[in-house]
From TrEMBL:
Residues 395-539 form the Phosphoacetylglucosamine mutase AMG1 domain. This is Putative membrane phosphoacetylglucosamine mutase. Keywords: Isomerase, Magnesium, Metal-binding. The keyword Manganese does not apply. It comes from Fragilariopsis cylindrus CCMP1102. The lineage of its organism: Eukaryota, Sar, Stramenopiles, Ochrophyta, Bacillariophyta.
Amino acid sequence: ESIIELLFQQQPLSSSNGLSYYNYGTAGFRFKANVMDGLMVRVGILSIILLLKQAEEVVSPTSTTASTTTSIITTLSTGIMITASHNDESYNGVKLANPDGSMLVPIQEEFLTKWVNESNSEEWKQLLINEKLVFKLKNRILQSSSLSLSLSLHIGRDTRSHSFHLSNLLCLGAQTFIDYLLLSQSSQSSSQSKSNKVNIIICDHEVLTTPMLHHIVLHSNPTLYLPSYITPKPTRKGYIETYATAYIDLCVDLCVAANANADVNNANVNANVNTNQQQTVLRIDSACGVGYDAVKELENAILNTNTSLALITTLNAQNGPQDGPLNDSCGSDHVKTLFLPPTWWKQMNKDNNDNDNQNDNGNYSFPYCCSIDGDADRIVFFGQQSKNELSEFLDGDKIAILIAHVLQEKLSKTKTNSNNSNNSIAIAIPTMGIIQTAYANGAATNYVRDVLQLPVIITKTGVKHLHHAAVENFDIGIYFEANGHGTVVFSKQYEQFAIRQQQQQQLKDSFYIGLHRLINPAVGDALCDMLLVDYLLRSLGTNDNGAAAAAGSSSSSSSSSSSWTLQDWNTKLYQDLPNRMLKVKVKDRTIIKCNSNESICLQPLTVQPLLENAMNVATNGIENGRCFIRPSGTEDIVRVYAEAKTRTDADKLALIASQIVY
Ligand code: NG1
Ligand code: ZN
C-alpha cells in the first residue's frame, strides 16, 4: 500500500502538467525538470524490477544445482544517470544503463514507458503483486541452500540545480520497493538463515559524469564482458586511474619509439621521454558542468603517474559549474551547432586585459581547445581565431576518421611484417568499420568509403543504435555521432589479436592493447576521447606511427616527434562540406515520421518531395546539396540539417528546408 500511495501522491502524470505522455527519447526520459517528480518515483521502482529481471537471466538453473557446500554469491549491477546532457538548465532527464554499461534495448524501453504512463492504481498493484509472487528468481534462490544474490543499483547525477531533488525521489521509489520486496522475502522463507539471500542495495555516487557511471556499472560486473588486460576498480577513482594510466603507457611507448637513442630496456627511459615531445596546452571548455572536476582529477592522476611525461600536454580545464549557467553559450553543442567559440572563458579573463589572449596578429592564442557537454559524454575540438571565430573545427566524424586512419596504418604494417616474417601461420587482421548517422558530413562518409575503403553503416540518431551496429558488425567498430558522442568497441577476436601482437613485439609497444585500454567500452566518453585524440595526434607526428619507427633506425630526427596540429588533422584527411543545423518549433512534432536511418521524411507525405526539390541541383543550382529533417528526441523541436558545397548554399538549403517544415 505504501508504494501505491507514494506513486500516486506525487504529481500526476497527466495533462495537468502540460504533458499527456512520457516517451523514452533518444537518450532516456528528458523533459522540463518541473514535470518530472512523479516520473522519477516510478522510474525508481521500475529500475528495481528491471534489475531483478536481469538477475533472473544471470542466475541460471544450473548454477542453483551446483555444489551445496560452497556458498555462491552472484552479484549484478545496473545504473541510472540523472542528466539532460546538452540541454539547457531548465531540462532534466533520466537514462538507465544495463550491466554491460550499454543503453536499454527497445523491449526495456517499452516496459518503462508503459508503466510510467499507467495511471490506473489497480494495474500498478497487479504489477507489484506479480513481481512479488511469481518471481522465479526468488523461488530458485530460496530452493538452493548455497546461492545468494547481491544486486546493486548505481545512481549518479549531473550538476543541474534540480538533479539532487530528482535523484532523491528516484531513490525513494527504489528503496520503498526494495523494502517491500525484502520484507516479503523474509516472510516467505522457511528459516531465518534464508532471509538475506537476496540483497538489493542502492549506491548513490552523487555528482559524476555519465561515462563514469557507466564505467562503475560495467566494472561492477567483471565476469561478464572484459578482456584480461582491463581490470579497473568500479569506482570514480578507478575510472580516473584507468584512463590516466592507459594514456601515460601509450605516450611512453610513443616516446620510446621516437627516441631511437633511448635504451628501451633502460628503466630510466620514462625520465627521458619528455625530451623528444612537443609541449602543448589543451584548453577544455567544460560547459560549466560536471566535466570540470573530472578533468582536474584526471590531470592530477596523470601528474602523479609520471611527472616528466605528464608535462607533455597540460590539461587546462575551464568553465566549471561556478563560472556560468550549464551549456549556456558554451559546451560542445553550442560550438557544434553555432560554429562559435564558447563565451565564458573570455569572461573569466575580463580582469586581465582581453588582449592577453591575442598574439601580435590579433589572433587568439588558443590553438588547441575542446568543448565537452553537460554530462561529459561528447567532445569536439577547435582552434580559436578571434572572439567570435573558430580557426579549425573538428567534430565526431573527424575523431572517428582520425582513429580509423591511425589504426588502418598500424594494421597494414602489422600485416606486412607478418607476411615478411618466417611465421607460416597467416595472422587474421581484425575487421574494421565506421558507424555514422545521417548527420555525418557527406565528405566524411565519402572519405571512409572511397579513401579508407572501409565499410560505413548509417543508423538512426542516438548512440544506442550506433553501439549495437558497431558490436554486431566489426571486430573494431568505430562509432561517432557528428556531435562528438562516440567510442570504439572491440570484439573477442580483436582481444586475442592484440594479445598475440603484444607477445610478438620485441620492442615495448603495446599499441593494440593500449588503445583498447584507453577507450571506454561502454559509452561515448569525452574524457577518454580527449586523451585518445591527444595521443593519436602525437602518434602521427612520430615517424612510422609508433614503436616500429625505432626498430629499423638508429637516428631520430627532431621533426619526427612533433605532433599533428589541429590544422593538420583538419586538412590532411578531408575537408568538411559546409553545413547548417536549425531548430524549428512546430505544433506537434510527433506527426513527422522518417525512414529507418532518418535520412528521408515519410510523413507528412508532402514534405519529402519538397525537400528533394530543394536539394535538386537542376532547380536550385545547389551543388552537393543534401538536407533532411527529423523530430528531436530530446527537445520539443524539429531538427533541420543541410550541407552543400558552399556556406551560402548550405545556409540557403537549411532555410528552405525549415520553411517546408514550418
Ligand atoms: P535529438 O534531440 O533526438 O536530435 C540529440 C542528438 C543525438 C544524441 C541525443 C542525446 C543531434 C543531431 N542529436 O538527440 O545525437 O546525442 O541528443 O544527447 O546531435
Ligand atoms: Zn551528453
